Automatic annotation (TrEMBL):
Its cofactor is Mg(2+). Keywords: ATP-binding, Hydrolase, Magnesium, Nucleotide-binding. Belongs to the AAA ATPase family. BCS1 subfamily. InterPro entries: AAA+_ATPase, AAA_N_dom, At3g28540-like_C, ATPase_AAA_core, ATPase_AAA_CS, Mitochondrial_chaperone_BCS1, P-loop_NTPase. This is AAA+ ATPase domain-containing protein. Residues 255-392 form the AAA+ ATPase domain. It comes from the Eukaryota. It holds the Pfam family AAA_lid_At3g28540. GO terms for biological process: response to stress. GO terms for molecular function: ATP binding; ATP hydrolysis activity. Residues 458-489 are annotated as: Disordered. It catalyses: ATP + H2O = ADP + phosphate + H(+).
Length: 489
């Protein structure tokens, strides 16, 4: 018993000695560190710190990559992408975050605060990220991305630490993955804009040729009054297009898609474009061709457009005369340079200049498809032709659900029967559905409106038929008179 007790006392004494020695060493280190910080110049201090890190790194399996916020005077794409990506990797242990929101974004953005670390697991591999921020004493320091940088004098960088053996995978797979993820995240959260041509700055920088404002159009594929088959066609085509980046590169084509929306006014062409923009989260660029002076203007505008956008050319049949291509070659050079020609437009949408950008949708609208030159209609220019027809029973039910919030009503059958006979646009039906807050009254008034439209259209049809018969009779009579004159002669 005594030997056991003495052994325990010996172990306790040894432990006390070890703890005392460790405390003395720690105190010595702290004193030494304080002396170094207080009396040695910062340059020597940095040199010692760097040397110490290098010494330990030789015996460590870890590798640290430093990603600065700026590369010279330009933004570092990797830093921006990582900052966006890591905002979604916040863990319960994270204590400090920065919250931002700009006019170009729909939601709040979370980013790391300086000194904070985040761990990310990618392909079962652990990656440690730390945001490092250091102050610069120079008064001439300037951060081009921060208007207040001369006051803050702050340089930020991200440090990525991982096992050395994964270096190639980080460069070839992990960082490219982060860049693509960040692009998708920014695309999903950005506030949509609609751009128009700024003719005063037309001949300056290409990016200044467009001026934009927020697009708050609420149209979606759920609210647009289209036949179900047409909606499914457009949706499936858009989904397929978005997944075909590598295929377009493989076959050597610009990554773009052309749509032609044709049909009478008021059939929902603009609403469908807005629904496409909301679905893809693409900005809209509205181009008015009649305001352009020459083909080179088209090229400048194309260069000034951002990727992931929709270019809209409305009423293409009414803007410029494109029919007579032979006439273009006969005009003198001076006149030809003062207008947009069909060949210029074709080169704009399907020529070499069309490759200046990726992930673009080009939408043309017209009320008269038959007036367009066949060269515009072929695949590669207008790939998908969508007929925007008069309101159908399916379209009416969609409008009733959207505007009145109802799926069924005893008057639906009567309305659908009349709507198949009357040529009425979805815009006209929507206007009628907004006239009263009482559902019963609204639907009864809609029936009266449809009956009135049908009767008027029948009268107009009879009138046109009579006029046509009168013209035929007049032509026949004129022909008979001419034959009589010939016989007399």
């Amino acid at each position: 018993m005594s030997s056991s007790s003495s052994s325990t006392e010996s172990h306790i004494a040894t432990a006390k000695t070890i703890l005392s020695t460790a405390a003395s060493v720690a105190a010595t280190v702290m004193v030494a560190r304080s002396l170094v910080n207080d009396f040695l110049p910062s340059e020597i201090h940095d040199f010692i710190s760097t040397g110490t890190r290098r010494l330990f790194s030789r015996f460590s399996s870890q590798l640290t990559m430093v990603i600065d916020e700026f590369d010279g005077l330009v933004n570092n794409q990797i830093y921006e992408a990582a900052e966006t990506y890591l905002g979604t990797k916040v863990s319960p242990s994270t204590r400090r975050l920065k919250v931002n929101k700009s006019d170009t974004e729909k939601n709040f953005t979370l980013t790391m605060e300086r000194g904070e670390g985040i761990t990310d697991i990618f392909n079962c591999i652990k990656f440690d990220w730390v945001l490092i921020s250091r102050h610069v004493e120079s008064r001439n320091f300037h951060n081009p991305g921060d208007l207040n940088s001369t006051l803050r004098s702050e340089v930020r960088s991200l440090e990525l630490t991982f096992n050395k053996k994964h270096k190639d995978m980080v460069l070839k797979t992990y960082l490219p993955f982060i860049i693509e993820e960040a692009k998708s995240m920014k695309q999903e959260t950005k506030a949509l804009k609609i751009f128009m041509v700024d003719y005063e700055n037309m001949y300056g920088s290409p990016s200044d040729a467009w001026v934009g404002t927020n697009l708050d159009h609420p149209a979606t594929f759920e609210t647009v009054a289209l036949e179900r088959e047409v909606k499914e066609l457009v949706l499936e085509d858009l989904k397929r297009f978005m997944k075909m980046k590598e295929y377009y590169r493989k076959v050597g084509k610009a990554w773009k898609r052309g749509y032609l929306l044709y049909g009478p006014p008021g059939t929902g062409k603009s609403s469908l474009i807005a629904a496409m923009a909301n679905y893809l989260n693409f900005d809209i660029y509205d181009l008015e061709l009649t305001e352009l002076q020459c083909n080179s203007d088209l090229r400048k505008l194309l260069i000034g457009m951002a990727n992931r956008s929709i270019l809209v050319v409305e009423d293409i049949d009414c803007t410029i005369e494109f029919h007579d291509r032979m006439a273009e070659s006969q005009e003198d050079t001076g006149r030809r340079n003062k207008k947009v020609t069909l060949s210029g437009l074709l080169n704009f949408i399907d020529g070499l200049w069309s490759s200046c950008g990726d992930e673009r949708i080009i939408v043309f609208t017209t009320n008269h498809k038959d007036k367009l030159d066949p060269a515009l209609l072929r695949p590669g220019r207008m790939d998908v032709h969508i007929h925007m027809s008069y309101c159908t029973p399916c379209g009416f039910r969609q409008l009733a659900s959207t505007y009145l919030g109802i799926k069924e009503h005893p008057l639906f059958e009567e309305i659908e029967e009349v709507i198949q006979k009357a040529q009425v646009t979805p815009a006209e039906v929507a206007e009628q559905l907004m006239k009263s807050s009482n559902t019963e009254t609204t639907l009864k008034e809609l029936v009266e409106f449809l009956e009135y439209k049908k009767e008027n259209q029948e009268l107009e049809a009879k009138k046109r038929e009579q006029e046509s018969k009168g013209k035929e009779e007049e032509q026949r009579k004129k022909k008979d008179d001419e034959e009589k004159v010939e016989k007399v002669e």
